[in-house]
Amino acid sequence: MKRFVVVLLTIGLLVSPSWAKSRTGQATQKTPAAGTSKPATRPENQDPYKAFIVVEALTGQVIEEHNAHLRWPPASITKLMLTLIVVDKVESGQVRLTDTVTVSVEASKMGGSQVFLEPGEAFSLEEMMQAVLVASANDAAYAVGEFIAGSREGIVEMMNEKAKALGMSDTVFWSMHGLPPSKGQEPDLTSCHDLAILSRELLKYPKVLEWTSIQSAPFRGGRFVMNSHNRLLGRMTGLDGLKTGYYQEAGYNMAATAERNGLRLIAVVMGSPGARIRDRAVEEKLKKGFSRYEMVPVVKKGEPVGKVIQVSGAKQKTLQGVAADGFTYLLPRGKRDLIQTEVLLPEKLKAKITQGQRLGEMVIRYDKETIGKIDIVSPEQIEKSGLFSRIFD
Predict the structure, then answer these.
(1) Are 274 and 250 in contact (CB under 8 A)?
(2) Is 315 a catalytic residue?
(3) What is the pTM of this model?
């Protein structure tokens, strides 16, 4: 009996390492999940990021930046460009959020963060986009890319074309999900500057913030719960997006946006050595921006501007122009008095005057430097009077 036990123990010791190695081999066939690799211990003197930028969302004015054009792997923030392609297609009517996205074999094989899609499963585009932006699901991103463009190559080409059109000169995409490249492949690359451009473009679509502000959502009818990787949601007042990203070589990245008192800021941080360090940096940058700056409305669209203009050759003898567009400017707090405006208009005009006709312009200056010009236009059409009236005039 003792001999039998000894034999069993010996077999166990011989087999166990082999079994463990086999299991490990299976696990490493898939790309490591975002956030699962254990980073090295951070030295005390290590920088909290490689690069960052903070911009005002409406105008793109840069508040603060460091290494803003450093080309760096965005990791899962790559999915924001996929999102822009999708909302563009929805806006133009080429696809609908109710359309069905069917999962391919290739999509189901995506590793990292996922919602564990199976080949042949079908979900609405809306459900898939929630999976992409809430759970950062790589399998859902692949499936959406195939649905939009027909193939991985097709969606990547569309993403690069869009980046070029937006002037994202630091950017090149090789994937629609941002996973680390396999052997022989190139990594996705971008910069804080370019991600700020992308973020501003995404903010034109309310649906994007609707998705990125979700902290937790059900999937597959509630059998699977998706949790956002953005830990600042619900923690920082006004923060409602946009996307985090991580893999070991890229470090911890984030493109974030928040709004307070009519001021919306975008902060992009790349290459942080830890998730908490990244989150703290983003929060500090945004809070600093809100405390030091404010959006000052100079003129509203349609607001009467300047003096009354005399009109000859018409029954209506006077006209007051209005601003063709609104103008709002980001200013350091307490500097409103440095905004000056100059209105350039003629003394008289002859009829006929059409609605929307340019009458002159408003020049806007900050500390004597021109920061903008707004056309002044006619709010109405003024017809010529009859011949007798014109002779009498």
Answers:
(1) no
(2) no
(3) 0.83
